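Methods: example folding runs. The two proteins below were folded one after another, and each record is reproduced exactly as written to the output file, sequence line first and structure-token line second.
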Amino acid sequence: RKMPEYCVTGGTGFIASYLIRELLSRGHTVRATARDPGIQLAHCLEGLDKALYVSLRDRVVPSEDVAKVGFLWSMGGAKERLKLVKADLLVDGSFDLAVDGVDGVFHTASPVFVPQDQNVQVNAPTLNSVVVPLLLIVICDISKWQLWYAYAKTLAEKEAWRFAEHFGINLVVVNPSFVVGPLIAPRPTSTLLLVLSILKGKCTYVPISCSESQTLDKCNDQEGDSNPHSMDTAKIRELGLPCFKTLPQMFNDCIKSFRDKGLL
């Protein structure tokens, strides 16, 4: 029986790289998207039918930063079952070929934009399932906060559920609490980049005082929340999945990987 084929968007990201490695280890074919797949990835088109090959051929372009995606080819099964496709969230229709005919999509690319036209709906009927990792912040009580980042994440998830229901797509949304760990890629992005900046002392806060303001600002008082947020992991244990790592374990593994890669 043919193994299902999956698309992983944002293929060079932290979560995406782990997904790609795991899917390949289980024998799946993976289409990973990247804004710049790189010149050495042209062989990823081999084995495709002629029509799809012609369509994808022009999407593999020379890269000035091959190292950013080259690490994916060191994964087991990558040469046989990994295809990298050029796609950009800011370019309408650039993901069409990446998701056409796959059994499911792991959508990790960020930011997520909701276009006002119907282009995004073209390939919706061809998808069976989609997994979208968002942040835990979308399920916190933020009724008294003015955090537009959290608000945007909440709207993104609501739109994902609406879209999935409309087109009959099996959607799973994962809300990770904190994503830190060993780095697979040659250099960090997103959260790990911030962690590295803190470790190197490059992430600083400089207080700036303004002696004059043309506008009188009025801020509401907000009492701090001293209660820690807790999550019930009973379902995780019942499924036989491993327990979550502690923060010290996560950061120790992360720092070790930084040192192994010469970043610290």
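Second run, written to the same file directly after the first:
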Amino acid sequence: MDLGRLILSRPYYKTDPITGGGPAQYISAEHKLSESWKEQAHNVKLVGHSDLNGWGDAFQIQVSKGICYVAASGVNGHDGLTILDVSDPSKPTILNQISDSPGARTHKVLKINDDIMITNSELRPNLREKYPELKGGMKVFDISDPINPKFLRYVETDGMGIHRPIYDRERQLMYSSGYRDGFDKKILLIHDMKDPANPAFIGQGWVEGQKDGESYSWDNSIVQNEAWCH
């Protein structure tokens, strides 16, 4: 069932081809303005818009009690997290912006409860040599003051950091994808969130064939070695 869709009018950037492909195609490639998208709408009406002060394209959004947290990434920037007042949806107003290192992307945000928020800090592969001090993982914020989050701690993970976190409120578990030593590409990561300010890694899952030494469990002639958890 098609409930509705909206495509905003905005510049379209065509990615230059990159030898080797992979994440480089959308993380730090050069882009050229080639044409514009025309606005299209079906069962949806645009009532407001924010350019986030140029802080990237909206990627993941959490809204609660009139406050909107926008984690952004894209060809327009990877600057970090934007906080907006959306109590009047027709006039979204930027209240605060929290930057991340140019060598990382904060494009995932997850509100655990009214006091704790998680963002990812995912390394940009093409810039790892330029920012060797950066470690992949997640950031934990105190949002008891929802407009002015207070950074509490950084939780380091293997590889480039967590991706697409989802919170199981009943079990108080956070699921995400990410890299682990001994595995090929991203697998499922599980963190215990009973103490939301202190995420604790407790488990992992993977597709058979991702672990070092395992044989592929999929038809390699179709997907080659590209089966992984996203």
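Comment on the second run: The helical segments are 24-27, 220-223.
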